[in-house]
Amino acid sequence: MANEPRDPMPLEEPMFILENGEMYRNQTEVKMSQIVLPCHANYCGELSAGQLLKWMDSTACLSAERHAGCSCITASVDDIHFETTIGVGQVVNITAKVNRAFTSSMEVGILVSCEDLFSDRQWKVCNAFATFVARRTEAGKVQLKQVIPRTQAEQMEYSIAAERRRMRLIHAEIINDLLSSCCSQTVSECLDYQDAVPAERTRVESVELVLPPHANHQVSTFGGQIMAWMENVATISASRLCNAHPTLRSIDMFHFRGPSHIGDRLVLKAIVNNAFKKSMEVGVCAEAYQGGEPLRHINTAFMTFEVLDNEQEAMHVAKDTARACGW
């Protein structure tokens, strides 16, 4: 069963009344509602995180394209923390709207909530911020029109969006610096832990052939599909460490480095970087190739998993799997 919070939030009102009495609704707002069917669920009867990521990406893309007036592609998705799980038979409500537009990119805010049709209650599952880039048209590079915030909430998101954009631009540099500094750690240092599990045991590599059903309306691989494939191999990797069914709790930023297309082979790799008292971090990357060409880096992310008990509380990772040597 899904983890339902004790204090559900009220259903969100689609319209706002401005100070002058005018009824207002954000023109970039897009809503999607999906009932969770068994085909969307994982082994625990809960909505798979990969399917949710696909729905979130679709909704956000439609919002971005409504504002841009042209095709848009996913550039990145910020950190996501999943507060609850969603069960079969419940409804997923996703709202997306453009917070701020820059030259050719824009930030789209995404709110995901779960609705129980029998109790008429709704609660927050997660929120995220995605960056989309408007694709060039025949007329050249797109110059996006500015977003005009009308409500207090929109003004706040508009102001903070600039700082979030600055953080995204330095995110890759920070990660690269961290990876470089970690390279000095030797295998012998990892093996100092008597209960350490070799990271190699958790390594997963899987290949997916990009077919037409995996493509978006621009004939490129659907960003949500790539994220779903990455979540799949990361879950397998985490399962090999804990010997149980892990639950995805958070994702440390998807960053698309380049596109892939129909006919590409996507190589998805995952490995447990480290395990902690009640969680484990899995590093996952996606690369693409066609024929004999070299691999192209498509995406990288870090995912945190937990193993939940019957009360939906995080359990201790077993002592003999308490640590894994990093990637």
Automatic annotation (TrEMBL):
<dbReference type="InterPro" id="IPR006683">
    <property type="entry name" value="Thioestr_dom"/>
</dbReference>
<dbReference type="InterPro" id="IPR040170">
    <property type="entry name" value="Cytosol_ACT"/>
</dbReference>
<dbReference type="GO" id="GO:0005829">
    <property type="term" value="C:cytosol"/>
</dbReference>
<feature type="domain" description="HotDog ACOT-type">
    <location>
        <begin position="26"/>
        <end position="138"/>
    </location>
</feature>
<dbReference type="InterPro" id="IPR029069">
    <property type="entry name" value="HotDog_dom_sf"/>
</dbReference>
<dbReference type="InterPro" id="IPR033120">
    <property type="entry name" value="HOTDOG_ACOT"/>
</dbReference>
<keyword id="KW-0378">Hydrolase</keyword>
<keyword id="KW-0963">Cytoplasm</keyword>
<dbReference type="GO" id="GO:0052689">
    <property type="term" value="F:carboxylic ester hydrolase activity"/>
</dbReference>
<feature type="domain" description="HotDog ACOT-type">
    <location>
        <begin position="200"/>
        <end position="311"/>
    </location>
</feature>
<dbReference type="Pfam" id="PF03061">
    <property type="entry name" value="4HBT"/>
</dbReference>
<dbReference type="GO" id="GO:0006637">
    <property type="term" value="P:acyl-CoA metabolic process"/>
</dbReference>
<keyword id="KW-0719">Serine esterase</keyword>
<protein>
    <submittedName>
        <fullName>Acyl-coenzyme A thioesterase 11-like</fullName>
    </submittedName>
</protein>
<dbReference type="GO" id="GO:0006631">
    <property type="term" value="P:fatty acid metabolic process"/>
</dbReference>
<keyword id="KW-0443">Lipid metabolism</keyword>
<comment type="pathway">
    <text>Lipid metabolism; fatty acid metabolism.</text>
</comment>
<keyword id="KW-0677">Repeat</keyword>
<keyword id="KW-0276">Fatty acid metabolism</keyword>
<dbReference type="GO" id="GO:0052816">
    <property type="term" value="F:long-chain fatty acyl-CoA hydrolase activity"/>
</dbReference>
